[in-house]
Amino acid sequence: MHSIGSFRRVRRAASSVLAITVVALLGLTLVVPAASASDARFLGSVGGTPLRAPVVGMAATPSGNGYWMVASDGGIFTFGDAPFLGSLGALKLNAPIVGIAATPTGRGYWMVASDGGIFTFGDAKYLGSLGNLRLNQPIVSMASTPDGKGYWMVASDGGIFTFGDAPFMGSLGNLKLTKPITAMSATASGRGYWLAASDGGIFTFGDAPFLGSLGNLKLTQPIVSMTVTPDRRGYWLAAADGGVFTFGNAPFMGSLGYLKLVRPVVGMAAPPNGTGYWMVGSDGGIFALTGTSPGTPAPQLLGGGSVGPTNTAALHSVGPLTINTPGAVVTNVDVHGQLTIAANNVTVRNFRATNVTQGSNVTGMVLEDGEIHGNNDPNNLTDGVTWANYTARRLDIHNQLDGLKAMGNVLIENCWVHDLNFHTGSPSYGAGDYTHNDAVQISSGSNVTIRNNRFEHNDGNSSIFIDADQGPINNVMVTGNYLGGGSITLFSIISRSAPQFGVPTGVFVTNNIFTEEHRYDYALVGGTVWWAANVNLNGQIVTPKRDP
């Protein structure tokens, strides 16, 4: 096991700029393995995809491993473990949809329209609506009771409407408000609720505690959404410009106030563990904020975590090894030669191998806590991990040509790729008669996430090479990494040898540290790349060079 010790923490003057996964230009779905109760993670978006109607809200699943977005026409977009249970996209509505609420099971949802119409899907029960009434002001939000047997609606004038077991605890309908109500949330007991106005004013009813408001401040943009902490002892308010305001025990995990957004924020949600939050733009772009400052990338790895085998004493030696059993879990092997995965959904933990390859048409490989060492031979010419449809975690990869080939549906996290084998003097090595080593090479495919890794000590081509020379590339997330090495540390460019596949699309590079360990520059990018909060070791913003 190699312990990756603490590294210099780079702090920027703008302390509010925290680690974010920003997706607001090009929205495509990332494949991220399911997990237990999770931090707010980017699980996909529709930002950049032409929509028939704007997104107006979102809701998280009970596990925190998924979310729904809803558009004003009732279209539903699902990500992670959020199931698609139906939509209204094919219907002509009397009034636009303005909100969504999930059932406690996560197997259903309600949609509410501005006229108070209610639409139910999955195990969400229809308990009544206002569609046949003439309202003084439009409905702007809804919330469900904890047992899912009732719901409230709130109008922009603060009028409250209750259904099922949702109790009426008061309203603002008889008051003249300074600004309209835009959001509501319910307490854990279901015996109270908060209302939030566009100026940040907070109004409490029942057992909902008042924990602060913004009513006395002048805001740059209006408050559009609110969400509460799991214990309901705090709440967040989100503004249209992505500003976030916290009260009670709600932690500040970052905001977007320093970014110029393509479209305004319209909704907010938090996972059940309260670690982080999502915001959604009207274009379906997703912003996942989890509170790590840039300059502290990969806390699991760079903050003293480890890579490689967790228990070397348990390893037993085997020759070159092929796994043919679907769903096999292989542990504690020291493979003298290549490890070949020839069956679906194989997991390998606590291991060593010269290199690892997954057979064609095989999916679901998971590699955890391993050393892939190329026999510690500086003349080794294998690649560390190939090819697609796999997850790599906490791997120590060295003495390879390329560290990992990632040709679609790949998650690489908390890995250390270093000391790749650079060779010169033979046409077989490639253009220029030298090897073009990459820590991660993407030549085709979609849905690749590279996060919280350390890539360094590479005299070859790059840390991350995104070049569509074997097929189109889209939806690549590079976030929270420590990146060094190569002629240029990160490429995302149209292939010189296969321009017919176009420039990579849906590429997001956020919250990375770039070292000075490169020959020419930090990054070269073409097309549309979302680039945010990337810094060098001095905390200075890194700006990529443009590829014509």
Class by SSE composition: mainly beta
How far apart are the termini?
43 Å
Number of helices: 1
Question: Radius of gyration over alpha carbons?
Answer: 25 Å
- Give the biggest beta sheet: 15 strands, parallel
Number of strands: 46
Mean pLDDT figure:
86
Strand composition percent: 35-45%
Give start-end ranges of low-pLDDT stretches: 2-37, 292-304
Which outline best applies?
elongated
Helix content: under 10%
Structure explained in plain terms:
There is one protein chain. This protein is mostly beta strands and 548 residues long. 1% of the residues lie in helices and 40% in strands. It has a 15-stranded parallel beta sheet that branches. Strands 31-34-37-40-43-46 form a 6-stranded parallel beta sheet, with no helix packed on it. A hairpin with a 5-residue loop joins strand 12 and strand 13 (192-197). It starts with a strand and ends with a strand.
Keyword list:
single chain, 548 residues, mainly beta, 15-stranded parallel beta sheet, 6-stranded parallel beta sheet, 1 helix, 46 strands, 1% helix, elongated, disordered N terminus
